[in-house]
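Render histidine kinase in 3D.
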Amino acid sequence: MIKFSKPPSNYSFWLLNAAAYLTWLGVLAIALPHIIGSPQRTLLFILFGLFFIGLTVYVFLEERPFLVHLYLLFQLIITWIISSLIPIAAKGSTSTFFFILSAQSMLFLPLIPGLLWIVAFIIVTWFGGVLTFGFITPVGIISTTGGYLFFGTFGAALRQANAARQHTQRLLADLQQAHDQLQAYTSQAQQLAVAEERNRLAREMHDALGHRLTVAVVQLEGAQRLIPTQPDRSATMIEAMRTQLKQALAELRQTVSALRSPNGLPELSDSLETAVSNLVHTFQEATGLSIHLDLPSALPPLPQSHQLALYRAAQESLTNVQRHANAQQAWLTLTTDAEQITLTVSDDGQGFNDEGDGRFGLVGLRERAKQLGGSLQLSSAAQGGAMLRLQLPISSSEVADV
């Protein structure tokens, strides 16, 4: 399975912190000779240590604006106290801390609050210069203002880059999730396609062979009984059985060939009316059952899928009459109107039980009906036997596809 790699981690925050630590170390190195001789050296070392701790904690304050404000205020106060206590020769170095704080203010805060903190740093620097030296030069004003804004811009750029990185990671996670779902759906679709193909193959094999083999078995049983007394009639029945088996083999070949075609449907060699009439005639001769056939004078043009479903339903119904109904007569009727075509097969046999509705042949007919938007009903007939009714819709688009 494909896995999308994450974009490289953004080390800019850590680089900024490393620069902050180096700046802190540089200021401490400059001020150290003056601090050692100062009476306030203990307090100054403590303040430098607190500033260093603040730099370490800052990296964990992302997406916590309130704590960022407290951090900047804390560092501002410490820097101001250090600048006030340190000997005058090293006072200028402490303002370097504000370069780092300017970048940090724009890194984790929105534009306006970050700029306000930079303004605060500029004002504190100017005010400290006036208090220490009594004046501040225009060059000093420009250099400190420009330096703080430059570092603030750098922090804002890092903030935008971090936001873009996070957005990319979210998109990457969504893409990976969508990819995994697509693979799962593809696997499910493949499994469904295989299952559907198996069901379709099973339906065609069952419908193509079941009826012919049932008729052949009936003829074989009859021929076996007649061999001692009526060998000529027995031979005729065996010849009819041979014909049935040859037709079954032909239908099997036709079905296998059709399964390789795009629509996967075998075609009737005759019209639906002729195919059903031949089916009934052959079935009567083979089984001795009386089949009452009622077909309309003319059928509307039907798609091949409808014709095949109706023919298979007639085949399966007559096969079930022979195998399960113990009937003497059966009725096969085909009716049509502007909206649907209906095949009804009933008999005067013993009816059906609860298990009968779950036989494979009927399951296959239900699947065919559902695929074509129709329905299959199995109920008791008026003659006391069973009745099967298959209804298929006829739409203008379906007729146009014929």
